[in-house]
Design goal:
alpha/beta; Rossmann fold; 2 domains; ten-stranded mixed sheet; 18 helices; binds glutamine
């Protein structure tokens, strides 16, 4: 078993995750089986309790684990479903160590960072399987939280032998416009920090705004103590899916394989989408501080070959006069209402749904989006004034969306929602069935509330037979899984998250069909 460790320097958000996933997919294309461990040095046990505005989306795996969004990159680039074993947080490490201490497993010992915490981390590293594992350490070298992980990895590389190990350090090289030069000092200092942890990089990847000149590469090589051949420049790219190809062209995959003693094949194949078509989509969201908050939705669109949707702040739509709202929305050929939590911005989304229904604009509702489609229908078609979800109005006269019974008994947060893949039945009459070409599917969930279909029987059509002029339930499990107005061009809301399963060359068919409908004229 071989290991490629990826650390980051200078600052976060420079695409370490994409670089790591791309190295993984370049290696996979050499017919190697690639395993992944994303290490997150934060103290949260998982990413489920973090705000998407600060940390980006929570990615849900098939087995119901709430992960960091990087696991989504790995799924998309490696065409492989991740599980909870592909992510390790400091929160998990420390809580395991403390649990063991209380169970008396260290009886007699003074429990310490070394060896007890490092052993716990090394144990997880030793469980990785396949020909080669990508181990990505989140955060930036020098962060106090990540030190213990670097130490554990250093020890682990000694245990398995350095010849099976390769260290990649990804840093940022800022460009100074005034003097027209790239500055390598932050990179030099970050390599020094890494060396202080006992790790000497084998490869240095330099991220930069534009192509880095050879003298910059040479300078980093000199200060970093590696050959210039081990320094790879990766400039910003319009299309992240081109990076595996770039890595291959630069010879980084061959360099990695040579170092760990694997034989490269001559052929390399990587087909990736080019998001060039414009379907003029508006996404009405509430987490707008970073595009990462809706990462999987945006990538699902890109993987179908379409440009990024325009993000519209749902709160900004709330108090607009109808005319102005229509003026804004008429510029778009399709609307996406993504998932979310809490009351803020909800009414703006409901107004956008009403607009889409009345103007027959293709509409895709994801999780929260589907719940709001039922609320909008209850209020504006069935005449149930004040209909709402008890999440936003606990005293609503018509709780058309309400907390799932099993959820009412759960009192703590963190991994307690309805999570992960579950079997779903899709009714044959529905457009959804046409999209899947099958009636039995499995999709990933992350929610606490459900459509309260039994209490509002007369506004829904729940029968399997044929659709009616009510809001049609198109798919079910124990819960309502999809609603639809089949006479519309595309009016589908799903309780689950199709965005989590899109892969390179295999976007989720709901997205392809939605985007195709948006680009077809009425
Ligand atoms: N807030 C809603 C719920 O908990 C929707 C969740 C979501 O969109 N992921 O059911």
């Amino acid at each position: 078993m071989k290991y490629v460790t990826i650390t980051g320097g200078v600052l976060s958000g420079i695409g370490k995750g994409i670089t790591a996933a791309s190295i993984g997919s370049a290696l996979q294309s050499q017919e190697l089986s690639v395993d992944v461990l994303k290490i997150d040095p934060y103290l949260n046990v998982d990413a489920g309790t973090m705000n998407p505005n600060q940390h980006g989306e929570v990615f849900v795996t098939q087995d119901g684990y709430e992960a960091d969004l990087d696991l989504g990159h790995y799924e998309r680039f490696l065409h492989k479903n991740m599980t909870r074993f592909n992510n390790l947080t400091a929160g998990q490490v420390y809580s395991n160590v403390l649990k063991k201490e209380r169970n008396g497993e260290y009886l007699g010992d003074t429990v310490q960072m070394i060896p007890h915490v490092t052993l716990e981390i090394k144990h997880r590293l030793s469980e990785l399987k396949g020909d080669i594992a990508i181990v990505e350490i989140g955060g930036t070298v020098g962060d106090i939280e990540s030190e213990i992980f670097l130490e554990a990895i250093r020890e682990f590389s000694m245990d398995v032998g350095h010849s099976n190990f390769l260290f990649v350090h990804v840093t940022y090289v800022p460009y100074l416009r005034v003097t027209n030069e790239f500055k390598t000092k932050p990179t030099q200092q970050s390599i020094q920090l890494l060396r202080r942890s006992g790790i000497i990089p084998d490869i240095i990847v330099l991220r930069g705004e534009k192509k880095l000149p050879q003298n910059t590469i040479d300078k980093v090589a000199l200060f970093g103590g590696v050959s210039p051949k081990a320094v790879f420049g990766l400039e910003d790219s319009e299309n992240v899916y081109s990076i595996p190809e770039k890595i291959h062209t630069l010879g980084m995959d061959k360099f990695v394989m040579d170092k760990v003693g694997l034989k490269p094949l001559s052929s390399f194949s990587w087909n990736y989408p080019k998001p060039e078509k414009d379907a003029k989509i508006a996404m009405i969201g509430k987490y707008l501080s970073t595009d990462d908050a809706y990462k999987s939705v945006l990538e699902s669109v890109a993987l179908c070959g379409y440009k990024k949707p325009k993000m519209i702040d749902s709160e900004s739509l709330e108090n607009l006069p109808d005319g102005e709202l229509n003026e804004i929305l008429k510029n778009y050929s399709g609307i996406i209402i993504p998932g979310g939590f809490g009351k803020r911005g909800i009414e703006g989304m409901i107004r956008a749904i009403k607009y889409a229904r009345e103007h027959d604009v293709p509409l895709l509702g994801l999780c929260l989006g589907m719940q709001l489609m039922t609320i909008e229908y209850a209020r504006n078609v069935a005449g149930l004034k004040g209909a709402n979800s008890t999440e936003f109005d606990p005293n609503t006269p018509y709780p058309i969306v309400d907390m799932m019974e099993e959820q009412k008994r759960i009192l703590n947060f963190g991994g307690t929602m309805r999570l992960g893949s579950e079997e779903i039945r899709v009714f044959e009459w529905s457009n959804l069935y046409k999209i899947y070409s099958t009636g039995s599917i499995s999709e990933r969930h992350r929610h606490r509330y459900e459509v309260n279909v039994n209490a509002f029987k007369d506004i829904f059509r729940t029968k399997e037979s044929e659709p009616s002029d009510r809001l049609n339930v198109a798919a079910v499990s124990e819960f309502v899984e999809a609603v639809e107005l089949p006479e519309k061009r595309f009016y589908i809301g799903v309780q689950y998250h199709p965005e989590y399963v899109s892969k390179v060359s295999k976007p989720h068919p709901i997205f392809s069909k939605f985007l195709e409908t948006c680009t077809n004229d009425k």
